[in-house]
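A reminder from the course coordinator: this example appears on the midterm review sheet, so study it carefully.

Given structure:
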């Protein structure tokens, strides 16, 4: 059974940094697309970054986070990270990690099957 657990959220001042982690178990994640989403208050969930399987190799960043956020994984792809720098109050949201079996497909725009529980990020001005 695939399980994901997100952590690392918190309260930070504008301009600060946070690093989110997603601990994953129950599968060989080299064949999975992995992603970070966020849901701002009153808005739909949006995909902000993803990394395709090792066979595909592509990655994606939303324009709203490009140049400020970096997604990475450990060697086994059992933990993935979202390094968030230059945070803004507009980044305040619940952040979710997600995974989906996608050995040869691009990670962007998929219907992800597996989700972590979400971690709150609050950026104060």
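Designed residues:
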């Amino acid at each position: 059974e695939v399980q994901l657990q997100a952590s690392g959220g918190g309260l930070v001042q504008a301009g600060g940094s946070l690093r989110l982690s997603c601990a994953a178990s129950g599968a060989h994640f080299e064949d999975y697309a992995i992603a970070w989403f966020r849901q701002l208050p009153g808005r739909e969930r949006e995909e902000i970054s993803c990394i395709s399987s090792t066979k595909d190799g592509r990655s994606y960043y939303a324009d709203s986070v490009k140049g400020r956020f970096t997604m990475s994984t450990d060697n086994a792809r059992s933990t993935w990270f979202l390094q968030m720098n230059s945070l803004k109050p507009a980044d305040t949201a619940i952040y979710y990690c997600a995974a989906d079996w996608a050995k040869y497909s691009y990670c962007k725009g998929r219907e992800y099957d597996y989700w972590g529980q979400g971690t709150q990020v609050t950026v104060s001005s």
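DSSP finds no helices and eleven strands in the chain. The longest strand covers residues 93-101.
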